[in-house]
């Protein structure tokens, strides 16, 4: 199940909790009493001992996006913190019509969830995660689309995508109720330089 974020940025499973378990919910219960009026009903509680040890509650750390060991993409590291754009998908039909989505180097997951590389959040017919995968090979300067592991199908120029297929400029990709045009930036005319791997020193 997909994690949900509360207004304070805490992540939680909505199948287990109806609201954020970290934020807590104040509930007015009023006074309580034992069921059935047993022997302890109305009995006074003994006072707490002064030397008794109380367990202290450890505060829950605040959620900070990317703080829990985010993997830094090799291209982002090479480009001084920037994951360079290599192309775009432009929505020409569907709920997000007119909107563009950036394509970055190597694998780009496509889905409705905000954690996807290409998040098409306005189309409810798109699988939440991994509806399709669009990749850019920085060595060959080629783009491919492949089916994801989501339930929905992807179509390239009206043909179902059942295995990775190379993309050409202005190809039409259909997922959910959206039609997207593929616009490459990198290719024969321009490409981000591929740096050779550093030799280990003795």
From TrEMBL:
<dbReference type="InterPro" id="IPR008984">
    <property type="entry name" value="SMAD_FHA_dom_sf"/>
</dbReference>
<dbReference type="Pfam" id="PF00498">
    <property type="entry name" value="FHA"/>
</dbReference>
<feature type="compositionally biased region" description="Basic and acidic residues">
    <location>
        <begin position="53"/>
        <end position="69"/>
    </location>
</feature>
<dbReference type="InterPro" id="IPR000253">
    <property type="entry name" value="FHA_dom"/>
</dbReference>
<protein>
    <submittedName>
        <fullName>FHA domain-containing protein</fullName>
    </submittedName>
</protein>
<feature type="domain" description="FHA">
    <location>
        <begin position="108"/>
        <end position="161"/>
    </location>
</feature>
<feature type="region of interest" description="Disordered">
    <location>
        <begin position="35"/>
        <end position="69"/>
    </location>
</feature>
């Amino acid at each position: 199940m997909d994690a949900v974020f509360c207004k304070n940025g805490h992540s939680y499973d909505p199948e287990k909790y109806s609201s954020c378990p970290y934020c807590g919910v104040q509930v007015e219960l009023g006074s309580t009493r034992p069921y059935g009026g047993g022997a302890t009903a109305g009995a006074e509680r003994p006072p707490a001992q002064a030397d008794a040890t109380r367990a202290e509650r450890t505060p829950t750390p605040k959620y900070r996006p990317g703080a829990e060991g985010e993997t830094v993409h090799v291209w982002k590291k090479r480009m001084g913190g920037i994951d360079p754009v290599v192309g775009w998908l432009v929505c020409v039909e569907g709920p997000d019509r007119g909107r563009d989505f950036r394509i970055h180097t190597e694998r780009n997951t496509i889905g409705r969830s905000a954690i996807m590389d290409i998040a098409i959040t306005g189309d409810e017919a798109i699988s939440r995660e991994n509806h399709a995968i669009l990749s850019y090979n920085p060595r060959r300067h080629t783009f491919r689309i492949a089916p994801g592991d989501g339930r929905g199908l992807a179509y390239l120029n009206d043909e179902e995508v059942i295995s990775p297929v190379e993309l050409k400029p202005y190809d039409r990709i259909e997922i959910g109720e959206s039609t997207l045009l593929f616009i490459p930036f990198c290719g024969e005319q321009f490409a981000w330089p591929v740096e050779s791997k550093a030799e280990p020193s003795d």
